Amino acid sequence: MRDRHMMADTKNRTADSSSEARRVLIKLQGLYLFMGLAGGIFNPYINPILVAQGFSSKDTGFIMAFGTLISIILQPVWGILVDKFRKTRLVLVISLMVPALLAYFYNIQVYIILILIYTLCTIFQVTQIPVADSYAVTAARAANTSYGMIRLFGSLGTGLGGFAAGMYLSQFSIHMLWLPFLFFNMLSAILAGTLPKQTSISSSSVTFSVGLARLLRNRTFLLFLTGCFLVNQTLTAFNSFFVISFQMAGGSVALTGTALLLASITNVPSMLAAAYVLRKWGHERTMLLAAGAYMLRWGIQWLWPTPEVMLGVQVLHGLSFGFFYIAAVEYVASVTGREMQATGQSLFNMVFAGLGGIVGNLLNGYLLDTGGPSVMYLSCTISAALGAVILYIVSRQAREQRRAYSLE
């Protein structure tokens, strides 16, 4: 009788745990959807907002690069604060609310103030993805699903946001985009406030500084980060400068929204298929496939920088960014393990989005101003090719290590 009661209690605890995992999964899918809507509506248009106020692409590139640099310097502070005070959920909520409340001030036509506003926004935004991804990876494992099943909602939101922004701008001024950005970020913050307090990021047995030192001694991981940097700095040609380059090539405002929708929507099937592709090909070869898609994507736009081609080539966004990001995040999780997962994701984000964003914004802003879209896309093609070479070395080292382990 006692054994039966114990078995019933175990089943009830398992059922409760499974039900809680599903609830957290649904909340995270909603969070990524709202974050995607906010970012899709506003982020691609930050550059055009500043250009509309009389600044050049080179000027706006410097604003973005400077803000990203400061955010990289301060990002370890976020990790230390989370480690020390165990306030994962609070950090995520604040990181969503501060940029939302500051977005209106992008309309101020004072260069120094714009640098300050972008820097403050980026300092808080830079921690959103590492914290949300740490929740997502943990929740996906608990719910027996893949990280991609959560992350695809972010891509869906980004695509719908980009399309909605195009429609919105056909009726309202570009200087009014801060309103929908504020609305969806506040929804995200409310949803983030309902997430569990404890995740792997706050239950880690290794502090941020110790984990960082360990990872920086891993040569293969450093090669991986270098390859990610070379590939992802090219993405600023899309994230920061696509709207401007597309309109320089003759594309309309309405068609810009369609291109942004097409690009982000292709992430959805990519992220649905990512789990299967990763099982079949592994993390390293999937990243190589995605790097090849980046090369093809930029190469086509270098050879034919016309609105029709630039619109159609966005179907490669899912195969390039979608596959690469999912494979890279899961690669970091597999290499760092549970105890250093948050540190690994933070370091990856510092290089992937941070350092890549700085160099990409400065370089691609300068090239777009001086040589136009064609020169910018040629540079991106070369950088993605160099990144692919380094990731091939990482893949080969991984195969050799697996072969060595199988022989022991």
Provide a short characterization of the protein structure.
With 408 residues, the protein is mainly α. 82% of the residues lie in helices and 0% in strands. The longest helix is centred in the C-terminal third of the chain and has 67 residues.
Description of the molecule:
With 408 residues, the chain is mostly helical. It contains 17 helices and no strands. The protein has helices at 2-42, 46-52, 57-85, 88-102, 111-125, 128-142, 148-169, 178-192, 208-216, 219-232, 236-239, 242-248, 253-265, 267-303, 307-312, 317-336, 341-407. α4 packs antiparallel against α5, α4 packs antiparallel against α8 (178-192) and α7 (148-169) crosses α14 (267-303). The chain is globular. Mean pLDDT is 80; it is low at 199-204.
**Into which percent range does the helicity of residues fall?**
over 70%
- Computed structural class: mainly alpha
- Low-pLDDT stretches are 199-204
The largest β sheet comes out as: none
- Proportion of residues in β-strands: under 5%
How much is the average pLDDT? 80
Radius of gyration: 21 Å
| Topology, number of strands | 0
H/E topology pattern: HHHHHHHHHHHHHHHHH
Shape field? globular
CA-CA gap between termini: 48 Å
Number of helices: 17
Pfam family, one: MFS_1_like
Membrane topology: Multi-pass membrane protein
Subcellular location: Cell inner membrane
Protein name: MFS transporter
